[in-house]
Design goal:
By secondary structure, this protein is α+β, with helices and mostly antiparallel strands. The chain has helices at residues 9-19, 52-55, 57-64, 84-92, 97-102, 108-120, 125-131, 142-151, 181-185, 187-190, 198-212, 218-225; strands at residues 21-23, 67-72, 75-79, 123-124, 156-164, 170-179. The protein contains twelve helices and six strands. The chain has a three-stranded antiparallel β-sheet. α4 crosses α11 and α6 (108-120) packs across α8 (142-151).
Length: 226
């Protein structure tokens, strides 16, 4: 991957469109993350206490229409709308969720949470946990299940929403808002996601990654995207 610097939201958006895939944190592919290319003043150790990379998340998702979620090594990543249909097709192995469940490839707990997201999207994590009774003495495994559904590309983070105090002033960190790609991206996703065989999508992604990382071992790249 060629060297680049992220020092603004515009730089980040341009990088997402140029590379198609851009993980947030450092991972097993050296140099393939925002963390490794962003200027210090925009990262969490900035002197002014403003963590720009985190503040940009919601606006970047809204402005680009990209998919955001834990897609690689259970870590967050932006994937452009141009590349996400192929990636989802590959990760889903050509199954929509109902077909996956009917074939015994998804369990009931996954189905329950997926349907809560699908029926209520967009929905913030706090409300999702309330609806699903994910609390002490109630249902368990929310974080594990929502991460798995993201990895399979059935659920994405569609925005980050700030809570407001009694005066209407935002406070704290942005809270993840969940949706399905179908609901968030609409026809640009649904009309493309299953147009190829999953293996064709895999080959297309592998060809792209091979160009981004010509010196990386192909087996390592295949393991990373799988």
């Amino acid at each position: 991957m060629k060297d680049f610097i992220i020092s603004s939201k515009t730089d980040l958006i341009n990088a997402i469109h140029e590379f198609g895939f851009l993980p947030f944190f450092a991972n097993s592919i050296e140099g393939f993350s925002i963390e490794e290319h962003i200027t210090r003043d925009c990262w969490y150790d900035s002197d002014d206490g403003v963590w720009s990379a985190w503040e940009w998340k919601g606006p970047v998702i809204r402005e680009t229409g990209c998919a955001y979620g834990k897609f690689f090594e259970k870590k967050a990543c932006y994937i452009s709308p141009e590349w996400f249909p192929d990636f989802a097709n590959y990760r889903r192995d050509g199954y929509d969720f109902d077909a996956r469940y009917d074939d015994g490839l998804a369990n009931y707990r996954d189905k329950t949470l997926y349907e809560l997201v699908d029926f209520n999207a967009p929905i913030i994590s706090k409300r999702l946990k309330q609806l699903g009774n994910y609390k002490k003495g109630g249902n368990r495994g929310f974080d594990t299940i929502i991460t798995r559904l993201q990895g399979q590309c059935y659920v994405i983070i569609s925005d980050f929403v700030y809570m407001k105090d009694k005066f209407g002033k935002p406070y704290g960190w942005g809270v993840a808002e969940y949706s399905t790609p179908e609901r968030f991206m609409g026809g640009s996703f649904t009309e493309r996601v299953y147009e190829k065989q999953p293996q064709e999508s895999c080959e297309k992604i592998m060809e792209h990654f091979s160009k981004l990382f010509p010196n990386e071992d192909l087996k390592k790249l295949k393991k990373f995207i799988s």
